[in-house]
Amino acid sequence: MSAIKEQMIKIISEQPEDSSFKEILQELSFTAMVNKGLKDSLRNKAISTSQLKEEMKNW
User: Fold this and answer.
1) Is 8 within the bounds of a domain?
2) Number of domains, the chain
3) What's the CA gap between 46 and 40, in Å, rounded?
4) Cα(20)–Cα(10) distance, integer angstroms
5) Does a structural domain hold residue 2?
6) Which residue range forms the structural domain that includes residue 54?
7) How far apart are the two ends of the chain, measured CA to CA in Å?
8) In a domain, 26, yes or no
């Protein structure tokens, strides 16, 4: 089994028994976003808080 499937199974199995489908999807999505952010950071694709604040001024 792939590492991704194993991670998903682990996340799902750690959820409370009364978790809804939506809650489980939210947890999987959150984990995916955190993992993407960590990978981006390791690849120096992240920006600092001060850079983000400057960019937000132009929104």
Assistant:
1) no
2) 1
3) 6
4) 16
5) no
6) 22-59
7) 44
8) yes
Residue with tokens 């939210």: 26
Q: What is the pLDDT of residue 45?
A: 92
The answer for 43, left when phi > 0, alpha when psi is -120 to 50, beta otherwise, is: alpha
- Vertex 18: Cα angle to 20 and 21 (nearest 5): 15
Q: Convert the pLDDT of each residue in 14-53 to its tens digit.
A: 999 999 999 999 999 999 999 999 999 999 999 999 999 9
Tokens of 54: 């400057």
Does residue 1 have a pLDDT over 90? no
Has residue 48 been placed in a domain? Answer: yes
For 14, the token pair is: 């750690």
User: Contact at 8 Å (CB) between 23 and 39?
Assistant: no
